[in-house]
Amino acid sequence: MTVAQALRDATARLAATSDTARLDAEVLMAHALGCTRSDLLLRHMTGEVPPGFAALVERRLGHEPVAYITGSQEFYGLDLTVSPAVLIPRGDSETLIDAAREAFADATPQRVLDLGTGSGALLLAAATLWPQAEAIGIERSPDALAVATANGRRHAPHAQFIAGDWTLPNWSAALGRFDLVLANPPYVEDAADLAPSVRAHEPAQALFAGPDGLDDYRALIPQIPGLLSVCGIAMIEIGWTQTEAVIALAQAAGLTAKLHHDLGGRPRAIEMADPRNKALGKADLRD
């Protein structure tokens, strides 16, 4: 059997469990061959099927995410290592970086903080945009912290990843204030109907936040004013039904709020700032 034939067969089998069956098959084949997907399509279609490919397909048939099978996921142009210890970075989360980039179009954040950094995706994207900024990622899971640290060594060696948990007293006492605070906290309702690839494989502590998905926002947002510099902003990811609730929490904490949509037009991030920062959405920092 050639690679092309194996891809057709795998696509037919995966169609029962994946909406991206052909793409999944190609990514898994490229991984088994140790080449890029482009090289696969251009140079390997008539070659022999590598012996490990069948086992990879079986794992995907069991709803294991492709990113966990291959151990990598792209985010904002960065090839990140991922494992079941961390949430798989989604393209929709790039909205936070795009919105921050717009906010700091005429300035440079000097200090950046990522709360619950997971794989390090948000912090490392920011650190590559603003390499001169001090970049700190906080993570409570030791296994996730190890993944983020490894990604940091590859993409932004100056970034710091440290243990921290915003639900504990005095967790931020020694951190100081930041021009940009990023966070993609857990925001899924405990009883949400999730795909098996998500509920059965991705870390629950990075997904679920109580019956209404707001528990972590309630704990985190009141602490944001104490983390922001005078002209700082926070960019917080939300679920698409949570706009009003999260904006209300921001306003209760004395913060102004601005909504950003993802490329699909869904509510995706809330930008927060001290009301004294008159240029919400257009940060005014001194380099």
UniProtKB/TrEMBL annotation:
Role played: Methylates the class 1 translation termination release factors RF1/PrfA and RF2/PrfB on the glutamine residue of the universally conserved GGQ motif.
Catalytic activity line of the entry: L-glutaminyl-[peptide chain release factor] + S-adenosyl-L-methionine = N(5)-methyl-L-glutaminyl-[peptide chain release factor] + S-adenosyl-L-homocysteine + H(+)
Q: Which residues bind S-adenosyl-L-methionine?
A: 116-120, 139, 166, 184
Give binding positions for substrate.
184-187
InterPro entries on file: DNA_methylase_N6_adenine_CS, HemK-like, Methyltranfer_dom, N5-glutamine_MTase, PrmC_N, RF_methyltr_PrmC, SAM-dependent_MTases_sf
Among the record's GO biological process terms, what is one? methylation
Q: Which PROSITE patterns match?
A: N6_MTASE
The organism named in the record is Novosphingobium hassiacum
Pfam families registered for this protein in UniProt: Methyltransf_31, PrmC_N
Recorded GO terms, molecular function? nucleic acid binding; peptide chain release factor N(5)-glutamine methyltransferase activity
Q: Which family does it belong to?
A: Belongs to the protein N5-glutamine methyltransferase family. PrmC subfamily.
List, for all copies, the residue spans of the domain called Methyltransferase.
111-185
Q: Which residues form the Release factor glutamine methyltransferase N-terminal domain?
A: 5-71
Q: Does the keyword field hold S-adenosyl-L-methionine?
A: yes
This chain belongs to which protein, by name?
Release factor glutamine methyltransferase
Which domain of life does this protein belong to? Bacteria
Q: What class of enzyme is it?
A: transferase
Q: Which UniProt keywords apply?
A: Methyltransferase, S-adenosyl-L-methionine, Transferase
